[in-house]
Amino acid sequence: MLPLPRALRRLGVALLVLGVAGTGVRYYLNRMHTAQTSPPQPLIDWDRARKVALKVSRWEQAPLHDRAYRQAQYARIVAQCEPRIAEYLGVSLPQPITRVYVLDRREWLEANFSSFEQLLAPIEEIYQRRARHRGGVNLLAGDIQRSLLSVQTGVLLGFLGRRVLGQYDLSLLSPDPSTQGSLYYVEPNIKMVQAGLGLSDEEFRLWIALHETTHVFEFEAYPWVLPHFRRLIRDYFDQVSEQVDTLGSGLWRLVGRVGQHMGSRGGVERLGRSLWHLVSGAEPAPGGDNTHHWIEMVLTDEQRRIFDQLQALMSLVEGYSNHIMNAVGKQLLPSFALIEQRMEQRKRSRPLMERIFYRLTGMDLKLVQYEQGETFVATVVRERGMAFASQVWEGAENLPTLEEIRHPQQWIERIECQKP
Fold first, then answer.
1. Residue 5 resides in a domain
2. Nearest Cα residue to 174 out of 217, 214, 234
3. Tell me: the pLDDT tens digits for 313-371?
4. DSSP code of 132?
5. Distance of alpha carbon 260 from its chain centroid, rounded?
6. Average pLDDT for residues 244-264, to the nearest whole number?
7. For the whole model, what pTM was predicted?
8. Residue 366: inside a domain
9. What span, in angstroms and rounded, lies between the C-alpha atoms of 155 and 149?
10. Residue-wise over 388-398: b if at least 16 C-beta within 10 A, else e?
11. Residues contacting 330, CB < 8 A, separation 6+
């Protein structure tokens, strides 16, 4: 039998624990009652995500002082790029580019938060439907998930807000087929990089504008491209939405897919390479086979099919823009070689934590898109000329597959076989 003082102390502790537990249970039951009588909370707390993103972006440390001057400069530069690109590609835009905006980091974040909310709306709808029927444990899990997703979204966009220079922004899910994109230039970031690398004010901005203006041609000079891209995005989100809708058994299927990839030939090796890239922060090999990315291990077969199509299209879009930037830039910019050299050095000298962040978020796939897509276009132009390479924009059937992006000769042979 316990001595009386120790027994009393233990009884006191037990009563205290029960009291705390009771308070917790009452709070939890109140939450359940409130959840049953009020609309479910959204999947992402966008207000919280915005606050996190603004804090991470450090927008107040990078003000935009000379907005009017820069606005006029970018409008002039884009107008200078447009006829040069049209001449090189042999195609014109349906109307001149007028949607050019100079933004600070905060403004860029607000524009992209609007796009994110629009993109995630289908998944949000399914989540809301499921949330109305979830039980007590799932209610708590949903709150935790919501907090994590909100913070993760804020951190990702806040990080990008410090890095992005230019962007061609598309209304991807707009029901209006005539909706056009906008060109954003995040001037505080551009100014910081330009000054840090000791580059020409005008030429560095022209170098950026060549790449972004080419995106306008890719999506607006060829009428079928944007509807095709939107269709792929919708198909992918439909697949993800279906996965969210069957979330109860989805975890075991996801584990099964990872196990299947692990058990396949070379699966363990691919996972090992993926973990090595993740832990070390090492860049994927330029032009190499990057099918070992961890993201691909959690995709269903149908998601992977659409994902590969999106990857191939974005590789082509980015690589084609880089090719135009190089070809036209060499004619326009006396310091073109210097800009290329110093931007490459900047990319290769990223801090370790930044490289790990790229790997964790899948942003390193975009770097691979640039490299593989540019190699694809350069190879086709070298082998068959620019007119032959431009056949990629004649229709969706001419788009290269991901395998053809990595092996350009396969695409060349396929297109040549289509000729009468």
1. no
2. 234
3. 989 999 999 999 999 999 999 999 999 999 989 888 878 777 777 766 666 666 777 78
4. T
5. 27
6. 45
7. 0.75
8. yes
9. 10
10. ebbebbeeeee
11. 336
